[in-house]
Design brief:
Blueprint: H1 22-36, H2 43-49, H3 54-57, H4 64-76, H5 88-104, H6 107-112, H7 121-136, H8 141-163, H9 168-179, H10 187-191, H11 193-196, H12 201-218
Helix pairs in contact: 1-4, 4-7, 5-7, 5-8, 5-12, 7-8, 8-12
DNA-binding region: 42-61
Keywords: DNA-binding, Transcription, Transcription regulation
Domain HTH tetR-type: 19-79
Length: 223
């Protein structure tokens, strides 16, 4: 006697799918980012993850650019609050460094963040934190407002640059070109070759942030 084939289950017996929400879509996008990188965070890929059609997602997210901005905003929520103790400049640098490190952990997102336009609660919380620290330091409001954009832009660009993962031979070629420069034609480059190539990324980021903060304090905004 042969076994009877399994009787197909009625569609009515299957568990009901969870209702789509913007929060659920973004959470699925973050999961795909962590596992596969930002290029895989597409409407079609998320539709597969959420067992729905791509058209259904557009009710909650207008396009892929908005989706990537929402993913960035979600990850901004992983950045802790500003340290409670210490000079305001050091605390400001700490928040910006934490932001850059978050992007270092997600190389493909770092490059996208250069043009992404997040507008969610975590982004606004980050801006509020930075403005509060600049205000604590007595930075004039207009300089603080423009300065926040400059600080985030530099931290983002730094993360994107180091996320590019250029081949080692490319970096070697740059180093050789600087070290072997003709002092007769490029005296300043030759004199500072060691300094031009010195410093770890974290050291350069720290110096750049401190230089920018000092400049923001002293440079008036003119309209």
């Amino acid at each position: 006697m042969t076994d009877r084939p399994d009787t197909p289950r009625s569609r009515r017996e299957r568990p009901a799918k969870a209702a789509l929400t913007r929060e659920g879509i973004v959470a699925a996008a973050v999961a795909v980012l962590r596992a596969e990188g930002l290029p895989k965070v597409t409407m079609r890929r998320l539709a597969q993850e959420l067992d729905t059609g791509p058209a259904s997602l557009y009710v909650y997210v207008r396009n892929t650019a908005e989706l990537h901005a929402a993913v960035l905003d979600e990850l901004l929520g992983t950045i802790g609050p500003a340290p409670a103790e210490g000079p305001w400049r050091e605390r400001l640098e700490g928040v910006l460094t934490a932001y850059a490190l978050m992007l270092f952990d997600h190389p493909t997102l770092a490059r996208s963040a250069l043009t992404a336009r997040p507008s969610g609660p975590h982004y606004l919380n980050l801006i509020e934190t930075l403005l509060a620290l600049l205000d604590e330091g007595g930075v004039p409001p207009a300089q603080a407002a423009w300065g926040v954009d400059l600080l985030l832009q530099h931290a983002t660009a730094t993360a994107a640059e180091h996320a590019a993962e250029a081949p080692a031979e490319d970096w070697d070629a740059v180093h050789r070109a600087v070290r072997d420069i003709d002092a007769g034609t490029h005296p300043h480059v030759a004199a500072l070759a060691g300094e031009l190539l010195s410093g770890e990324p974290a050291e350069r980021l720290s110096w750049a942030l401190r230089a920018l903060i000092a400049g923001i304090e002293r440079t008036a905004v003119t309209h």
